[in-house]
Amino acid sequence: MAEKDQQVHPLAPANKQPRSDEESAGLQAKELKRKKRIKYAVYIAAFAVFQTAIILVFALTVMRVKNPKVRIGRITIETMETNNTGAAAAASFDLKFIAQVTVKNTNFGHYRFDHSTMSFLYDGVIVGEAIIPKARARARSTKKLDVTVEVNSRALTNTAPLGSELSSNILTLNSQAKLKGKVELMKVIKRNKSPEMNCTLTFNVSTRNLQDLNCK
């Protein structure tokens, strides 16, 4: 009996050949490029956030324009005459002093203001005025101006409250002023600003000195 044909079994597929060095190098290069792109994207995002923060801080600090503050900083009395020896209705006063007006500018630009009038009142009646000259308060600084002031009681129609106050060796005056000017930022941006002053001056008649000064 003839031998049975020998069965032929297909050979198992041979193991795949390992990638060549060129293929491995190409994959590594692509991976490096991908990581670099991610790194650059992170850098760009971080820079954008940083730049936005800088612009925000710049807008909230440098570009923000605040109202300067005008105050009376100091009083130097030259002459003071008061009369309360007779009836209260005959009470009077006559003062001459130098008021140091300060204009505090906290902005990052100069503040230029025009001349203005500073009024002094007793019991709501104007008893004297003085001129604050026009000037410039530099950025982040305080401008000081010496203003000569003369006040007296001639405009008072009722001096009874004055007589009562002088009997306590006290004389109280109120000072008011309003400046009009502009804050200039980088010589491009200009903002109108009009700070106001309201000060209360209390003089000690017996010592001929300023006893208290309160401004707001």
TrEMBL record:
Superkingdom of the source species: Eukaryota
Late embryogenesis abundant protein LEA-2 subgroup domain residues: 101-199
Protein name: Late embryogenesis abundant protein At1g64065-like
Disordered: annotated segments: 1-26
InterPro entries given in the database record: Lea14-like_2, LEA_2
Keyword Transport: no
Segments traversing the membrane: 40-63
Organism: Durio zibethinus
Entry keyword set: Membrane, Transmembrane, Transmembrane helix
